[in-house]
Design goal:
The complex is a heterodimer of chains A (170) and B (487). By secondary structure, chain A is of the alpha/beta class. Chain A has one domain: Rossmann fold. Chain A contains 5 helices and 6 strands. In chain A, helix 3 packs parallel to helix 4. The radius of gyration of chain A is 15 Å and the shape is globular. The N and C termini of chain A lie close together (10 Å). Chain B has 487 residues and is α+β, with helices and mostly antiparallel strands. In chain B, strand 15 and strand 16 form a beta hairpin. Chain B starts with a helix and ends in a 7-residue tail after the last strand. The chains are: A alpha/beta (170), B alpha+beta (487). Bound molecules: guanosine-5'-triphosphate and magnesium ion (MG).
Chain lengths: 170, 487
């Protein structure tokens, strides 16, 4: 079984833990409990190009109280960068993280998740920032950890991209 | 060298696994008797664990090894912490941390839940983030509010009318006019903008708008220094609880309407005598001159008919004018609706005979009373019925009712003809508007309904129309119910 480490990154309270909970356990909770430290979940994912055991690293949201240790990212094969669609400030944090990743990790498979799509009425995302990330090579998906919309698809798309990158023979 | 028994026991109290690290740093040796729960949940083959198996169990360690190996290679430092990871258990999870140590030159590793540290840290972080979130939400709400205010301002700037914004206490807090009376402006009550005689009406409507949270419209005549201006006032209840007062000067529109009316009245008067003269001459010729050729007789008859029609129109026009200007004197009295309807029924018998369309009275309103001029009311209803008959299909009756509705007496006349398209329903009561779709092109003067409206309004009543195209048309008039004093 091919093992792949992926990291969920993004500002605090954007829904990283919720997305993983929805994907791995199919549950969602409204209550916000910030993640302290790192949480690692496993899930096997089947894709059109094969299957992989994902080691999903849930990293605590970056902010001025806590920065991501770069050692946590070592060995990752792909990234999900999460933004809270109702909070434009979280997109700025995402752009910072993306630029950082480009410098330290190189061009690994990556998807930007605009999360909380169920709250689209309160949505406020500056389009130009999003296209900036698109230009940096990020695929963009709109997800909801609450309703489950596009959650499975996001993890599967990333897995597939990682497997393709590796080449078909392995 | 293994840690002493004492040290091991010490750590076991804290639910911590102590491992002795082999010199090549690849094998980790733990004492099974002190293994904590989160550790023994795993299936180990003994307690000689190699690095690969340990990493398999705790993937987080992957990112700790490079730092730990470097640390064990040195001897000057006491302790290296990995940072916290959350280890899932069967029910819930436990926050773990790995610690690398050098004890008297021997490499050791501890894995354990440093609960005290963790809880304090988690609590601090949670509080900080909840606070940050609340702050962010507040900022967003404020920005939204600012944006809305600006939008409102931009909107107001685009309005050519005068506006004033009034706060909860009725004081002006904003306006866009340079033409303020001497003791008016920011900080003054709204009434200060208007002349003395309008004060009460403005204040009453202001508090009505505020209490009901609904918009109000009113018209005022503003007198100042011998001049009079007609103002249309709109009081708009804003979300903020403030009232926006929009003032439109309609003096010119009113003057134009007045000019139009007096022109019509004048033209009517001027036309009446020559028309009477023409009709008189024609009648004379037709009656007195014998042996006119048949053809001439026909032509003259047609001329007389046209002249008479014009006269009737002029008479009606003058009639509306008279009512609208308040010069028509109505002979109002206390009347009982039931007997009025009975009398009316007789006159409709004749109409049925001449047109073949039956007129049915569904409700007579017996026992209801109104205060009205019965001749004028009869004129109104006869007009409505004659219109209805004109629009009724050959085989359908016209229906009349008088009944009590919302404490008012309502007379209605319904025909089951082609109906009146929505776009005509507004203008139908204006002068010279024809009800479209007359059967067989029977032309009226276009004044009947404006006369009816003038009469009804003079009685403090209202007139209106309901219709569905292709189905029916109902014209109705409503009058206040008469309450005899002391009853
Ligand atoms: N409506 C809605 N709420 C969501 C969604 N995803 C997450 N939330 C809520 O957002 C809050 C934060 O979610 P988390 O998953 O804890 O966020 P996080 O990114 O893990 O936050 P940190 O661990 O502090 O970095 C919680 O109250 C969730 O219930 C979503 O898709 N829709
Ligand atoms: Mg989290």
């Amino acid at each position: 079984m091919i093992k792949k480490k992926i990291c969920l990154l993004g500002s605090f309270s954007v829904g990283k833990t919720s997305l993983i909970k929805q994907f791995v356990h199919g549950i969602f909770s409204e209550k916000y409990l910030t993640t302290v430290g790192v949480k690692i979940d496993r899930k096997q994912v089947e894709t059109a190009v094969g299957s992989a055991l994902l080691l999903i690293w849930d990293l605590n949201g970056a902010d001025r109280f806590q920065t991501i240790r770069s050692s946590y990212l070592a060995g990752s094969s792909g990234f999900l960068l999460v933004v809270d669609g109702t909070r434009p400030a979280t997109l700025e944090v995402a752009v910072d993280i993306a630029e950082n990743l480009d410098r330290t990790m190189g061009p690994l498979p990556r998807i930007l998740l605009l999360n909380k799509w169920d709250l689209r009425d309160e949505w406020s995302m500056p389009e130009e920032q999003i296209s900036k990330l698109r230009d940096m090579g990020w695929q963009v998906l709109k997800t909801s950890a609450k309703t489950g919309e596009q959650v499975e698809e996001a993890f599967r798309a990333l897995t597939e991209a990682m497997l393709r990158k590796e080449g078909p023979e392995r | 060298m293994k840690p002493s028994k004492e040290v091991q026991r010490y750590f076991s109290l804290f639910d911590t696994l102590v491992m002795h690290v082999s010199p090549d740093l690849q094998t980790f040796n733990a004492n099974p008797s002190h293994a904590p729960l989160w550790f023994t949940e795993r299936e180990w083959e003994g307690f000689e664990i190699n690095r690969e198996v340990l990493t398999e169990a705790y993937p987080f360690l992957e990112c700790f090894w490079p730092e730990a190996d470097f640390f064990w290679g040195q001897t000057d430092k006491q302790l290296l912490r990995s940072g916290i990871w959350e280890e899932p258990l069967e029910n819930g999870s436990v926050p773990l941390e790995a610690i690398a140590m050098n004890l008297e030159g021997a490499p050791l590793m501890f894995i354990g839940p440093l609960m005290f540290d963790y809880e304090a840290k988690a609590k601090m972080l949670q509080q900080a983030r909840d606070l940050l979130l609340a702050h962010e939400t507040l900022e967003r709400k404020e920005a939204e509010l600012r944006r809305k205010r600006q939008q409102q301002k931009d909107l107001l700037l685009a309005i050519p009318d005068t506006y004033l914004v009034v706060d909860h206490e009725g004081k002006i807090i904003e306006h866009n006019t340079d033409l303020l009376p001497p003791a008016s402006g920011i900080g003054y009550p709204l009434g200060s903008f208007f002349s003395e005689d309008n004060l009460d009406e403005v204040e009453v409507n202001l508090s009505l708008a505020r209490d009901s949270k609904q918009n109000r419209e009113l018209e005022l005549t503003q007198r100042s220094g011998g001049s009079e201006r007609s103002l249309e006032l709109r009081l708009v209840h804003l979300d903020s609880g403030h009232i926006l007062c929009i003032i439109r000067d309609v003096t010119q529109q009113r003057q134009i309407a007045q000019m139009k009316d007096s022109f019509l009245a004048m033209a009517g008067h001027e036309l009446r005598s020559p028309l009477t003269g023409i009709s008189g001459c024609l009648t004379y010729v037709l009656e007195e001159v014998k042996d006119l050729p048949t053809e001439v007789n026909q032509w003259l008859s047609m001329a007389l008919e046209s002249s008479d029609r014009l006269l009737r129109m002029v008479a009606k026009l003058l009639h509306v004018q008279k009512i609208e200007s308040g010069h028509q004197i109505f002979n109002k009295m206390h009347m009982e609706v039931g007997s009025f309807m009975n009398a009316l029924e007789l006159s409709f018998k004749g109409l049925t005979v001449s047109t073949g369309i039956p007129v049915k009275i569904l409700e007579r309103g017996s026992g209801l009373h109104i205060w009205a001029d019965s001749d004028a009311l009869r004129q109104v209803l006869e007009n409505l019925v004659s219109n209805a008959v004109k629009h009724s299909p050959e085989d359908k009756a016209v229906e009349i009712s008088a009944c009590l509705e919302d404490n008012r007496v309502r007379f209605s006349v319904t025909d089951f003809g082609s109906g009146i398209p929505q776009r005509f329903r507004e203008t139908i009561f204006q002068k010279f508007t024809q009800v479209p779709g007359d059967r067989a092109g029977k032309k009226g003067t276009g004044l009947g309904l404006s006369i009816a409206k003038a009469i009804v309004e003079e009685h403090k009543g209202s007139i209106g129309v309901d219709s569905e195209e292709g189905k029916y048309t109902t014209f109705y008039v409503q009058f206040p119910l008469f309450q005899a004093p002391g009853r």
